[in-house]
Design goal:
D-Maltodextrin-Binding Protein, domain 2, 2 domains, alpha+beta, 7-stranded mixed beta sheet, 13% strand
Length: 422
């Protein structure tokens, strides 16, 4: 009863935090309750149904996933994998409601900042022993791996990663005699020189959902602060930088309602000279931008740094086929399958060995992000992170609209954040 109440409370919290959504489509039909068999032995005559949920919808990604499923089923004819697409904006609540009702799939994909919350809610299976026997944990970057850990135990495997960098319109910078900025002072100078009628110097995505926190935290870290000491000089400097951009006209106040795709469209339209964004935007830029553009690492301040995004594999705590589900996860993480999906998805490997592949090292754009994986930091702040993020989002809105001073808003956010850190 207590666990169900915790799950329902967590569900309510997730509903308050808006996420991006996608088109609805189901590739595998309705999820069914698995049968009692617990073996993927190729010789077994008993059919095992394994259900999985994910939020991947682009055709190239789906094709890559379907290949994994087909090849696994061909090698394990007694296993049937039923994949169901769930829109990203619906997935968290669907998982939590499914947990309360005892109607979860065997395998799920989770946005990595949510992983610890689901672990604490009892939704996910502890796979610490399986991972230890597997022996490949040391191949993963610390950032994505940390997102799968809760109280010293492992509840998942990183699947794909991304991080943020600074995109810039090379033609505009060349025309203004501006070099790509490497630090905050140069970023201020570049934003000022690039701003002109019809063009803002810079854009960030500050819409009131997880996107704003995702975009803001790298600036906090670069200034030497963190969520664990939020009411500090660094946080005030970080939000003051964004406020300065708006006050001086270098950045539109409309960013308060814009997500990462919206600022991307502004960049492609030539209305923004620089933007903070991620790997997934590269294919669209290559297709639609009619100007020269490039990417650099996020400008540093007291230190450099970027943030980790991406997805993790997880097995639910209610599965009756944990060993089979784990075998599928291992199968899908073989380099030949993982590489095909990652390239189709515009994502980065979470594995240190795979990221050395020429696909990421020889691409001048992807290499910027690939190199960033060594320092990309996860939002691994415990099961109350969704509420923590909401406090950060509120602070950003208050300061950028001028409703409160940076000092006032940061102090109030910190008072909300401190009790939530575990």
């Amino acid at each position: 009863m207590i666990r169900k109440m915790f799950v329902l409370l967590l569900s309510a919290t997730f509903l308050l935090i808006t996420a991006c959504s996608g088109a609805t489509n189901t590739s595998g039909g309705q999820t069914s309750t698995p049968n009692q068999s617990a073996s993927a032995d190729k010789t077994s005559g008993e059919k095992i149904k394994i259900t999985w949920w994910d939020y991947m919808s682009p055709e190239a990604m789906v094709n890559a996933l379907n290949k994994v499923i087909k090849d696994y089923q061909d090698q394990h004819p007694n296993v049937e994998i039923e994949r169901t697409y769930v829109p990203f904006g619906d997935l968290k609540n669907k998982i939590l409601l499914g947990s309360a009702a005892g109607q979860l799939p065997d395998i799920i994909w989770i946005d990595n900042p949510d992983h610890q919350a689901f672990s604490a809610a009892g939704v996910l299976a502890d796979i610490t022993e399986e991972v230890k026997e597997w022996g490949q944990a040391d191949q993963y970057f610390e950032g994505p791996w940390s997102s799968t850990m809760y109280k010293g135990k492992n509840y998942g495997i990183p699947n794909s990663s991304n991080n943020l960098a600074l995109f810039y319109n090379k033609d505009m910078l060349d025309s203004a005699g501006v070099k790509p900025p490497t630090n905050w002072d140069e970023l201020r100078e570049a934003a000022a020189k690039l701003t002109k009628p019809g063009v803002y110097g810079i854009a960030v995505a500050a819409i009131r959902n997880e996107t704003a926190t995702f975009q803001f935290l790298p600036f906090v870290w670069q200034a030497g602060s963190d969520l664990t000491n939020f009411n500090s000089e660094g946080t005030i400097e970080a939000i003051s930088l964004w406020k300065e951009f708006i006050d001086k006209g270098y950045m539109s106040q409309e960013v308060l309602g814009q997500d990462q795709q919206a600022i991307m469209m502004q960049f492609v339209a030539g209305s923004v000279a620089m933007m903070v964004n991620g790997t997934w935007q590269i294919p669209e830029l290559q297709k639609n931008a009619n100007f020269n553009w490039d990417i650099v690492v996020l400008p540093s301040y007291k230190q450099g740094g970027t943030i980790l995004g991406g997805e993790n594999w997880a097995i639910t705590s209610t599965t009756k086929h944990k060993d089979v589900a784990w075998d599928i996860v291992k199968f899908a993480n073989q380099p030949e399958y993982l590489k095909e999906f990652l390239l189709a998805a515009g994502r980065l490997p979470s594995r240190k060995d795979l990221i050395q592949d020429p696909a990421w090292q020889d691409d001048k754009y992807l290499k910027i992000f690939a190199d960033g994986m060594a320092v990309a930091k996860a939002r691994a702040y415990g099961p109350e992170y969704p509420k923590i993020s909401e406090a950060v989002q509120e602070m950003i809105q208050q300061v950028l609209t001028g409703y409160k001073t940076p000092e006032e808003a940061v102090k109030e956010a910190d008072e909300k954040i401190k009790p939530l850190l575990k």
